[in-house]
Amino acid sequence: MRVERLSRDKIRFFLSLDDLMERGIEKEDMWRDIPKVHELFNDMMDQAYQELGFEIAGPVAVEVFALPAQGMVVVVTRGRTPSPSDLDDLDGDDMYELEVTLEESDQVIFQFADFEHLVQTAHTLQRIMGDGGKVFAYQGQYYLVLDTDMETETLKQAIAILTEFAEPSTITEHVLAEYGKTIWESQAVGEIVRYFS
């Protein structure tokens, strides 16, 4: 489980399938109100506090993005900070209120901080999955968007390669197309290999 700060009141976790399996949690369980999901959330908040000093009390928005064949990204946003009198009314089990939304995508989107990493990844990916994909530039990062309509084993191999060079992203293709710059609209992996061999 990895955690990173996105802003003062927002953090993001990446949970691998192994993280979920260790706790006996299926992807579908994430939106259910069951003890093991509460326990996972408490572990996540403990890690966020220890690594980032991120404390929560009061309302919290939780967005869960299921990533095909690799786990999920959980974005936690703090609401208003409760006053001391609000805290007096809470017992230990009610330190925060959760508002959970779940989204599942038929794409995997990875962000690269360095164009050279994208080029290296494309050369390896082409041998496994051919020439597909789209590439966008947005806020100083490069984004590779792949549709997941490929064999499960091929998808798993592609994701394993991608995680070596890039981070999974929760930004949607719509946001990238609207606010970013489209570099390759199709066959991106093949085009990168052709231009940067």
What is the number of independent domains?
2
What is the radius of gyration computed over CA atoms, rounded to a whole number of angstroms? 19 Å
Q: How far is the first residue's CA from the last residue's CA?
A: 35 Å
User: Approximately how much helix is present in the residues?
Assistant: 25-40%
Strand order of the largest sheet: 1-2-4-3-5
3D shape: globular
- The secondary-structure element order is EEHHEEHEEHEEHEHEH
Question: What does the largest sheet look like?
Answer: 5 strands, mixed
Structural class: alpha+beta
What is the oligomeric state here? single chain
Strand content: 25-35%
- Average of pLDDT: 82
Number of helices: 7
The stretches of 5 or more residues where confidence is low (pLDDT under 50) are 82-96
Number of extended strands: 10
What is this structure's SSE topology?
Blueprint: E1 2-7, E2 10-16, H1 17-22, H2 35-52, E3 58-67, E4 71-78, H3 84-89, E5 96-104, E6 107-112, H4 115-129, E7 134-138, E8 141-147, H5 152-165, E9 167-168, H6 173-179, E10 181-184, H7 188-195
Parallel strand pairs: 3-5
Antiparallel strand pairs: 1-2, 2-4, 3-4, 6-8, 6-9, 7-8, 7-10
Helix pairs in contact: 4-5, 4-7
